[in-house]
Design brief:
There is one protein chain. With 238 residues, this protein is α+β, with helices and mostly antiparallel strands. It contains seven helices and 13 strands. Strands 1, 2, 3, 4, 5, 6, 7, 8, 9, 10, 11, 12 and 13 form a 13-stranded antiparallel beta sheet that branches. The longest helix has 15 residues.
């Protein structure tokens, strides 16, 4: 299926950019064309290559979802208890993802339909839009992920600084229709006192972009959430 992956032409990065640079974050509803957003949402619904992503201190892990499901109930509960215990006082995350850029680099899942997203976010059209939006002409590339947060998934507060990647900004194309405010999963931003200064609700076809570094988190998705929180995301790199 050939779909033109494109930003809706009504969005002018030169007009939107001052708000991003002044406030450090920006939401753009209706970011993609209608056909593009519907197609990318369909890819998320049909994707079967998800990995459980979590950390133990500074170590990052990805596990096959089938491996987790094959654990005995007591083993699964012990694993979750360890995740939540670490999250009380430390940086911790637990959610599903498909690291598109890495899969391409390693030659995994050749022909996967999501791989075209990596090509698109590294195209001249996408990168030029982001350079103008951020006011950072030195942006040279973007990595790409797909993420899925189900009940119990979360990402605690951090600022996106990376030891080896020079990140200008983070972008998230939220692809979650009809999200109930009580289900959690908000992209929350914090000040130095730990107060939430702003929080973006999971939405459909909405770009959330923010400069790095900036304190933020994905709040816990409630156990009674009625659908997964899905998105595409990546970082704009110098």
């Amino acid at each position: 299926m050939n779909i033109d992956l494109s930003i809706h032409p009504r969005h002018n990065p030169d007009e939107l950019g001052p708000t991003l640079r002044d406030q450090g974050r920006l939401q753009i509803p209706g970011f993609l064309t209608e056909s593009c957003s519907e197609y990318l949402h369909q890819l998320l619904q049909e994707n079967r290559v998800w990995h459980l992503s979590y950390n133990e201190g500074q170590e990052n892990y990805e596990s096959e979802e089938s491996e987790f499901n094959a654990l005995a109930p007591q083993q699964r509960q012990k694993f979750l208890n360890n995740i939540y215990t670490r999250a009380r006082d430390n940086f911790q995350y637990f959610f599903k993802q498909y690291y598109i850029s890495q899969a391409i680099k390693l030659g995994e899942n050749n022909g996967h339909p999501m791989h075209q997203i990596h090509d698109w976010v590294n195209s001249a059209a996408f990168l030029d839009f982001m350079r103008r939006l951020t006011g950072s002409p030195e942006i040279r590339e973007s990595d790409s992920y797909a993420s899925l947060y189900g009940p119990g998934h979360f990402l605690t507060m951090h600022d996106d600084r990376h030891a080896t990647h020079d990140r200008v900004a983070a972008w998230v194309i939220s692809m979650t229709p009809e999200w109930n405010e009580n289900w959690g999963g908000y992209l929350a931003f914090y000040n130095d006192k730990g107060n939430v200064t702003e929080a973006f609700k999971p939405a459909f076809n909405t770009l959330n972009i923010f400069t790095v570094p900036q304190k933020h988190a994905v709040q816990l998705v409630a156990p009674f959430a009625g659908r997964p929180r899905t998105s595409y995301l990546g970082w704009l790199l110098r």
